[in-house]
Amino acid sequence: MKNKSLSASFFKNDLAVLIYLALAKLLIHFFFNGGYGYFRDELYYMACGDNLALGFVDHPPLIAFITRFTRMILGDSLFALRFFPALAGALVVFLTGLIVRELGGRRFAQILAAVAVMVSGIFLGMHNILTMNAFDHLFWTLSAYLMIRILKTNNPKLWILLGIVLGFGLLNKYSMLFFGFGLVIGLLLTHNRKYFLSRWIWLSGMVAFLIFLPNLIWQVGHRWPTLEFMKNATLYKNVALSPLEFLAGQILEMHPFNFPILLIGLSHFLFSKSGKPYQLFGWMYIALFLLFVLTRSKTYYFAPIYPVMFAEGAVGIGQFIQSGKRRAWLKSVSLSFLILGGLLTAPIVLPVLPVDSYIKYESCLGISHPPSENHEMGPLPQLYADMFGWETMAATVAEVYGQLSPEEKKQCAIYVQNYGEAGAIDFFGRKHGLPKAISGHNNYWLWGLRGYNKANIVIMLGGCEADYKRAFKKIKQVATFRHKYVMPYENNLPVYLCRGIRLPLKGLWPYFKHFD
């Protein structure tokens, strides 16, 4: 009888409620993560997983290993590839609730913060596809939780655990350095600067460095390709936003209804008595906001800090409601407000509607994603546009390749302009018998000619015919790739059949390099 009572009480306690919310988040993604098609980066990560290394031009190695592991145990369906990002998103919801508990928030505050994460557009979108960002959100939130535990318990051994999380976070995405930067600023600007006198914080940094060291060695051995990639992306690719534009992008991505929660969280960290022990997170937010604006960063780089800000905001709101006798009604109103707002905007970031219906729905809402890159936009935001056309693209190239004789196929290479196109040829081209693609874009350039050093025939997807005339004797446009939903720069791509190479591809290869 006693055991039954204990079991019943568990299913009703705060921890169980957080588990329910995390499971709800997981089920949302399981239900909708098969929508539309493979995302551009997913095709690239599968190629990286097929070519495992300790580093890549545009990202650290962990995502490639995750992708390889996923395909080994689950396969390469959309559901399979997106399983672990969905799980990461569910853990972010659960950890957000735990952070509220550590900050002194009761059940309502825990639920409010968890729901805020669940309805946030950036989290719904990024946890629904295979991307480094899903795991980045998890590493940041776990690091914030551990830091709060350190501040609360003064347990020095937690610094080692934090170092491990930071190290693997760096192997996932270099933006984990921003967390470290913000943490240092926050510690220096508060009474917590005392921790710099302890050996444990330095041991934490050493642990993180040692875990990250293999990728650092790879960078040195390859002459720092990621720095070149970042420089080019900042100068030529990313849109430069003013502070107000950057803030507007933040509000849209976190969900406008969540913005008051974040503001309350920021002010609570900086000015409230209960938030003072954790004031460093307020300074972290301010420092990172300024850093991202000055470095022309994309707005979604800031998303990993939202959970801890929502957590403190929910604590502040909970305290306000508890301090008045007739404010209990605000609990149901605030939660209903968030949930209804989330339902209203969910189709903007989750593929829940047929694509034509989505376009009409977005038009009716009057909400559109501001471009983060210097590209012309089509009828769909880039998140969705990059899920269309890849299989058709591979089939278009396959039609050209299929017209070659067996002898010609042996000396034919397929060159494309970027890693999305190359990933499409590598993945979808298998059933057409296509060889692996070559490209000068990012890590495809490092992979080189992939055995086609002596190719005399090249199928070129996209690019300029005038440029190709300098490298080939005969050029003929034999097809055109078209798809109404893709990004404009991916549409109406000519397919050239180039014969009679003037210089071996190996000699031309240095000129194809472009990291961005």
Low-confidence segments: none
Shape: globular
Largest sheet: 5 strands, mixed
Distance N to C terminus: 64 Å
Provide the gyration radius in Å. Answer: 25 Å
What's the mean pLDDT score? Answer: 92
How many helices does DSSP assign?
A: 26
Strand content: 5-15%
Number of strands: 5
Q: What structural class results from the helix and strand content?
A: alpha/beta
Helix proportion range: 55-70%
| Tally of individual domains | 2
Strand order of the largest sheet: 2-1-3-5-4
Plain-language structure description:
The chain has 2 domains: 293 residues, no CATH class; 123 residues, no CATH class. It is 62% helix and 6% strand. It has 26 helices and 5 strands. Strands 2-1-3-5-4 form a 5-stranded mixed sheet. Helix 3 packs across helix 23 and helix 6 packs across helix 17.
